[in-house]
Specification:
The complex is a heterodimer. Chain A is built from four helices and twelve strands. Chain A is α+β, with helices and mostly antiparallel strands. The longest helix of chain A is centred in the first third of the chain and has 38 residues. Chain A is globular. The mean pLDDT of chain A is 83. By secondary structure, chain B is mainly α. The C terminus of chain B is likely disordered. The chains are: A alpha+beta, B mainly alpha. At the A-B interface, helix 1, helix 2, strand 1, strand 2 and strand 5 of A face helix 1, helix 3, helix 4 and helix 7 of B.
Chain lengths: 300, 179
């Protein structure tokens, strides 16, 4: 009798575990479908988990980064003499540049004062530390240890000391996910200077993203600077993205300026376009309904 | 093999969660964000497969899947797909655990390699079917190779440092000692 009860219990346990398995598989399939459809609920779930996990990720990422830095520093130590010489040369060159820049800055300020020029709003920022990455070739994104509590907003641009890193795609209370420019989903409107040609920088999971929808290849050459256009009002204009690296049959590719190899700290920009044009100007003829309403207005 | 008691199963589950979480944290540690950099190995699969081979009853499939789902959510990759392929990989390894135990380490490594490649193939297949972009094949091959290499390290770490040994082997020695 007791044995029968034991068998029934085991059978029941097996049934429950099978039901759980089936339910779990179904949940995973639904979540995958939602991910494919770019459902915002998935990003909210991600940030909930990231908020919960960020303290332990910070604990792990610190020592690991320090270890990696130590190895790299040791490698650098072996060629410190050559580095010292090249740095001295670089300092001499930069001193000359600094003098030139200060002169230009003074001249620029004088000219602006003469023109009574109104400058655009300054872009603020908040800096954070990279605590995790995607860890697989299926996505290119990083998690940062700042979030909504620090004033990060969805869609904001992320930069390092060199150039644009990516875009904020998920904001939690204490963590933020930044989609890198190399991710398959990344699309950024850019312009190529000095030609001024406009294009969309498209991530393809490789180191050098492609310039899609480039207006024309004429005037675009390797080494040209690639900057953000500011179209759409999400990113500030004129953020450095990189340089045109190669121009082939499939189009041009961009060497990103941000240092993805040692991405430790990231600045999230707080940008709001200074002028929003949301209504037609006075010279534009109003729509018929509006015109009719104006005519019937008893106060007129 | 004698079925482990309920507290032992719970303890096994907790140990698996601890090592699984550590594996996820190590896997996602930010070392190099370049798209062409060496991809991180699938450490969570290594840990789960090691436990599934040695503690089959203490490695519940749902727990393995849940850990995979948490990793999917944190990493930013396709949500649910990583969990399903991890589950498939670990269950495949578990299904041949008896045979692997008889054949030794070489068979174990061969099975891990097969499961690792199979998981990546399943991932790619699902992405193709859903018209999602597919990563560079070379990166995927490197990930599979890295996973095999990482399994050897995890095997040595678990066996000789953490002393996570074979349950069945212990049960057999206990029963022969009692007999």
């Amino acid at each position: 009798m007791a044995r029968d009860r034991g068998d029934i219990g085991k059978e029941f346990g097996r049934l429950v575990s099978r039901a759980l398995m089936v339910a779990f598989v179904l949940i995973c399939v639904v979540l995958f479908a939602l991910w494919r459809a770019d459902n915002p609920r998935i990003e909210r779930m991600r940030m909930m988990i990231a908020d919960w996990a960020s303290p332990s990720m910070e604990l792990t990422s610190g020592p690991l980064s320090a270890g990696a830095d130590m190895i790299e520093d040791f490698e650098n130590f072996t060629r410190v003499y050559e580095q010292n010489k090249s740095l001295r040369r670089e300092i001499q060159r930069l001193r000359a540049w600094r003098e030139q820049a200060q002169q230009l800055e003074r001249e620029n300020a004088q000219l602006r004062a003469l023109n009574n020029l109104k400058l655009g709003d300054r872009v603020g920022y908040v800096a954070g530390e990279v605590i995790a990455d995607s860890g697989s070739p299926f996505a290119q994104s990083v998690l940062i240890n700042i979030g909504a509590f620090d004033g990060v907003s969805d869609g904001a641009a992320a930069v390092d000391g060199e150039g644009l890193v990516g875009r904020v795609v998920g904001v939690g209370d204490r963590a933020t996910r930044v989609l890198l420019l190399t991710d398959f989903s990344s699309r950024v409107p850019v312009k190529v200077l000095p030609s001024g040609r406009r294009a969309i920088l498209t991530g393809e999971g490789v180191d050098a993203p492609r310039l899609s929808f480039l207006e024309a290849m004429a005037g675009v050459a390797p080494g040209d600077r690639v900057m953000t256009t500011g179209d759409g009002g999400v990113f500030p204009p004129d953020l450095l993205v990189g340089n045109v690296a190669v121009i082939g049959e499939t189009g041009a590719r961009v060497q990103i300026r941000a240092d993805y190899e040692r991405l430790e700290f990231v600045r999230i920009l707080r940008y709001r376009p200074s002028t929003e044009i949301s209504t037609p100007g006075g010279l534009v003829i109003p729509a018929p309904e509006t015109a009719g309403a104006l005519e019937e207005d008893p106060l007129e | 093999m004698a079925a482990p008691s309920s507290p032992t199963r719970w303890l096994n589950g907790l140990v698996l969660i601890a090592f699984g979480w550590l594996a996820v944290l190590l896997e996602l540690a930010p070392l190099n964000e370049e798209a062409g950099a060496l991809p991180a190995p699938d450490l969570l699969f290594c840990v789960c497969a090691y436990f599934a081979l040695r503690r089959p009853t203490g490695t519940p499939a749902v727990l393995v899947g849940l850990m995979g789902l948490v990793r999917d959510l944190i990493s930013g990759g396709p949500v649910g797909l990583g969990a399903l392929t991890l589950l498939a990989g670990v269950e495949t390894v578990r299904s041949v655990s008896e045979t692997i135990r008889r054949r030794g380490l070489a068979a174990e490594l061969l099975m891990i390699a097969i499961a690792s490649v199979g998981m990546i193939a399943l991932n790619v297949l699902a992405l193709v079917v859903t018209f999602s972009p597919i990563p560079d094949i070379m990166q995927l091959v490197l990930r599979a190779a890295g996973t095999l290499g990482a399994y050897v390290l995890i095997y040595l770490f678990m066996r000789f440092i953490m002393r996570v040994r074979d349950d069945a082997w212990r049960d057999r020695s206990l029963s022969s000692g009692a007999g």
